[in-house]
Amino acid sequence: MIYLDHAATTPMARQVAASMEPYYAKDYANASTIYEFGEQSRHAVERAREIIARSLHARKQEIYFTAGGSESDNWALKGTVEAYKEKGRHIITTQIEHHAVLHTCRYLEEQGYEVTYLPVDEQGFVRLKQLEEAIRPDTILISVMFANNEIGTIEPIAQIGRIAGRHGILFHTDAVQAYAQIPINVDFYHIDLLSASGHKFYGPKGTGFLYIRDGVKTASFIHGGGQEQGRRAGTENVPGIVGIGAAAELAMHTMSERIYRETRQRDRLIHAIQSRIPGAWLNGDRYARLPNNVNFSFEEIEGETLLLLLDAKDICASAASACSTGSAEPSHVLTAIGRKPELAYGTLRMTLGEGTTWEEIRITAEAVEENVKLLREVARME
Ligand SMILES: *Cc1c(COP(=O)(O)O)cnc(C)c1O
Prior knowledge:
The protein has helices at about 15-20, 20-25, 35-55, 70-85, 100-110, 130-135, 155-165, 240-275, 305-310, 330-335, 340-345, 360-380, and strands at about 1-5, 65, 90-95, 115-120, 140-145, 170-175, 195, 210, 280, 295-300, 315, 345-350. By secondary structure, the protein is an alpha/beta fold. The strands form 3 sheets. A 7-stranded mixed beta sheet has the order 2-8-7-6-5-3-4, with helices on both faces. Strands 9-10-12 form a 3-stranded antiparallel beta sheet. It has a two-stranded parallel sheet with strand order 1-11. The longest helix has about 40 residues, at about 240-275.
């Protein structure tokens, strides 16, 4: 099997699974207990927090463990607007966010908040001038994703952070696709809140964290016990936290090598498709894109059918994003970058990963070329 859907999820690394194993049945103590036996769990949780803090150039107490990217996004948005509602009720985000942000914003609109959904340009970039123009005296939060999960475009995060800071507005970024893939320094980028998810970087599913800068107020997301400094209650998922910590540590070690290899493999695949298949449109920016993302819209074909043909050759890819598969609407991201529906429906996303080989890139390029041509011939005969 050739797995090219790492933006949907990644396989858990063997070392990560091994690191978690002792904390299920052997060292099972509740991390909040005071006896000696609980010390191991507590220590394991704090070690993971330390690793993640270091990976972001943050402080330990700024990392809060959650049950995944969606929870982190929900908390970042609902928690901060609740805490700052006296200051204002206006939020700025973009049209290309993940649904964990977009649907939370829709919910907040129902609660009386106002949301500006910034358009993006043809490459998927937020226009800084439009961001500045959208800022109002009652704007309390700007939420812009670090990198887009469908088209891979990396947003101008440092500039956005600087604009937010200059206006005294909090800046949240959904970094689920970027964290552990590319280096992130929360101070350099002026980030106040950052969401990440374990299963997107070879860690366990159902784990994540939210970075909250010291001094930023947020309402508690889960009320209950005093875990996570009283801001996110519930007995710690010790194996999961150990796992996301181990995945972060591993990712930091392998990052530069992975970026170097994936970027070249990505560019090889992009070049192969562009040079061999006419009517193939690259989605997302050519350069400011995630090292592992390849996304094309092909004229005159159905992406879903192409996926099935590739699946028959044991190649796993994605039509748009896993979240919108099965829905009849073209992806909101492709619509936002101006792809016409006919072209948007012919979209294929391939996201490379740790185990991707050059041989797989070659086989995939051939399979895509062969099947796009086949589908076009069939369409012309009808
Ligand atoms: C996958 C993803 C999420 C959701 O993360 P989960 O851990 O699956 O809840 C949020 N944002 C982006 C950009 C994602 O790619």
